DNA sequence: TTGTACGCGTTATCAA
DNA sequence: TTGATAACGCGTACAA
């Protein structure tokens, strides 16, 4: 084990082994057949010099590949990963990308004062944009300019960009219609954030007009297709406690007294919100679904609901992530990426029922 | 806008602008002062050629830096991100690393059959190992061999590796002692997984002997310091539903009848487990803390507990992540990384009380 | 302030 | 099966 002053390179190894650098290189890449004896010698030399394999930086300069796919998450990283849907998507993405041995580089899209956005100079082979809001247009622009393959998941991208989309509006309208058909007239919705500000507040025309999150808007549109004047509040995120807070706003006054004109059904834009809403409902002494119908959206394995089965529309989150990964893989192969559209599926649970007589 | 057959390089831009490549380079790196007129010309040429800035691959070969820090998460990525503690840690890490403009590369440590582990040839400047179990020793070995700076968070690494640690045993003993001092005699624990198998089962001497997760063992040791013979069950993960399941096992028989000899207190190894335990308790018709004391560990903002405040020990998860990032930053500066030890802090809530008289 | 020259560590190509 | 050579695209002493 000789201790050099600097790290050994493949050239050193080659010299030590008495072969050319190209031969040594081939030994490590394994792309071409090498005589066993030669390989042995090279490996021995490498071990001797403490050579840990080709420098990925140099290799990627030469090959033009870094083996890394950048994933741009809207908003803060922690929020993104608190959401089971995102998590499931990442899972599918990880899976698909693992099959082409690509790593995942987490990239933020929040603009910092001075620096350039990380996407501008990250050594990635391709980029996946998730949950695009307005800002992400910039990210998209940057990426396109760099000529990187890009796939957008549920975002508002241009025509030429492969997109992974969901029938948010239709699915939302579907479950809304079912609630309507149960006989509910006074129905409210709890929505996801409208924009990066993530304000908790009642829905107003103005706020909707200024909204930038497509998912929220699409699901809201589906709700409004059925309940054109249905009231709603926006949550600050897809969190149980947010649903709890929002539901209290809808159901009770400041003193915690249940309003006489409370809705008989709540349509939440995510399962987590629905779970929170159910908790709030029960705490107010109402029962689900007898006193109040609560439905969700996503179809995640709603951890935290105990034994009650949530009525919701299930989205194929994992498949979405996987599809994104597969399209990235295709594009890296030089083929054209394709947009993929997914549909949700209604899942009957135990949290929806007709309104009580007389309401 | 000329359309070349291949992407423009900085040399093309320089030529187009009538300056040398070094001047062009300097314009983009911004390290040295450049005459405004020159800069303008270079930028114009770049825009003209559709040059999107220096190729990160080439730049990183040249500078020896990729601006990427690899994060190796024990187990599957999705599990890791379902855990609020991990999430908070990642948050702190992100934060600290953002200040040195480093990206985060997600690395798995589950061994694939054929390929080399991703850590072996990812273009990272440093590595953070999180939640090390047995397998991670290999990852550590690989990283050390590559000569990369590495920081281990709550893992069993060697002496020379900077570690971010927590007083798991002491904190666990502390809260156990408080439960003891309330007068509880029959106390059970719900632990985190003992190993990668993540089995749900009662604690046995054999299982403990084969355990590989230091965090679980340390917290268990603290519990046993106070309740040497206290029974327990292991959960399959730090999840609410896991706590629910585990608590049912401890409190009731298969028919859901509360055992006569049920514990009067449950010490859970995580807040999520505690929340699940509380839910199970209430579903069995018992009240917390009147009928049963339940305490947790972590001090996360326990989303999903409604209005009840959990009694727990809070760990500085965010600070842990940040500390790891800071040590990485130091090491990248050429300084020595230091180990950092954090302590937990008891947080009185509303879920612990003396046992009912006569129990 | 700008230009020259070199090397970062590799791999692809082609010829031997 | 192996070896020589030429890029890959850039940053940075150093000199001008």
List the helices and strands and how they pair.
The structure is a homodimer of 359-residue chains.
Chain A: H1 10-17, H2 21-29, H3 36-49, H4 56-63, E1 68-73, H5 77-82, H6 84-98, E2 103-108, E3 126-130, H7 136-145, E4 150-153, E5 163-166, H8 168-181, E6 187-191, E7 201-202, H9 205-209, H10 214-226, E8 232-234, H11 240-251, E9 265-268, H12 271-283, E10 293-295, E11 312-314, H13 317-332, E12 340-342, E13 345-347
Chain A binds a DNA duplex (16 and 16 nucleotides) through residues 9-11, 19-23, 25-26, 29, 31-35, 38, 54-55, 57-64.
Largest interface: which pair?
Answer: A-B, 60 and 61 residues
Distance between the termini of chain A: 84 Å
Oligomer: homodimer
Strand tally of chain A is: 13
Q: Structural class from helices and strands of chain A?
A: alpha/beta
Radius of gyration of chain A: 26 Å
Going by CATH, the architecture of the largest domain in chain A would be 3-Layer(aba) Sandwich
Sum up the overall morphology of chain A in one term. Answer: elongated
pLDDT < 50 runs, ≥5 residues of chain A: none
What is the percent of helical residues of chain A? 25-40%
Q: Which topology of the largest domain in chain A does CATH recognise? A: Rossmann fold
Tell me the series of helices and strands of chain A, N- to C-terminal. HHHHEHHEEHEEHEEHHEHEHEEHEE
Q: Biggest β-sheet of chain A, characterized?
A: 6 strands, parallel
């Amino acid at each position: 084990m000789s201790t050099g002053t600097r790290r050994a390179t493949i050239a050193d190894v080659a010299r030590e082994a008495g072969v050319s650098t190209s031969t040594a290189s081939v030994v490590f890449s394994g792309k071409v057949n090498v005589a066993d004896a030669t390989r042995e010698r090279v490996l021995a030399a490498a071990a001797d010099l403490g050579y840990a394999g080709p420098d990925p930086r140099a290799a990627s300069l030469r090959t033009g590949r870094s083996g890394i796919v950048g994933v741009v998450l809207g908003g803060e990283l922690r929020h993104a990963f608190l959401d089971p849907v995102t998590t499931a998507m990442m899972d599918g993405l990880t899976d698909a990308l693992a099959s082409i041995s690509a790593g995942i580089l987490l990239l933020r899209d929040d603009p910092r004062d001075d620096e350039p956005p990380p996407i501008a100079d990250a050594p990635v082979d391709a980029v996946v944009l998730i949950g695009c809001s307005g800002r992400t247009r910039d990210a998209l622009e940057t990426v396109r300019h760099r000529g990187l393959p890009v796939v957008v998941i549920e975002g508002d991208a241009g025509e030429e960009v492969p997109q992974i989309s969901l029938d948010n509006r239709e699915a939302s309208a579907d479950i809304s219609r079912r609630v309507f058909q149960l006989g509910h007239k006074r129905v409210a919705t709890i929505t996801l954030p409208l924009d990066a500000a993530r304000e908790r507040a009642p829905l107003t025309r103005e706020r909707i007009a200024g909204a930038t999150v497509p998912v929220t808007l699409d699901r809201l549109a589906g709700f409004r297709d059925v309940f054109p004047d249905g009231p709603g509040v926006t949550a600050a995120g897809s969190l149980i406690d947010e649903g709890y807070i929002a539901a209290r706003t809808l159901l009770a006054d400041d003193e915690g007294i249940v309003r006489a004109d409370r809705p008989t059904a709540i349509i939440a834009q995510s399962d987590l919100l629905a779970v929170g809403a159910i908790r709030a409902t029960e705490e107010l002494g109402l029962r689900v679904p007898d006193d109040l119908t609560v439905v969700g959206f996503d179809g995640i394995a709603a951890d935290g609901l105990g034994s009650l089965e949530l009525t919701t529309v299930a989205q194929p989150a994992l498949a979405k992530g996987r599809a994104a990964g597969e399209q990235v893989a295709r594009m890296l192969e030089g083929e054209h990426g394709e947009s993929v559209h997914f549909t949700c599926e209604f899942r009957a649970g135990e949290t929806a029922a007709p309104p009580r007589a007389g309401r």
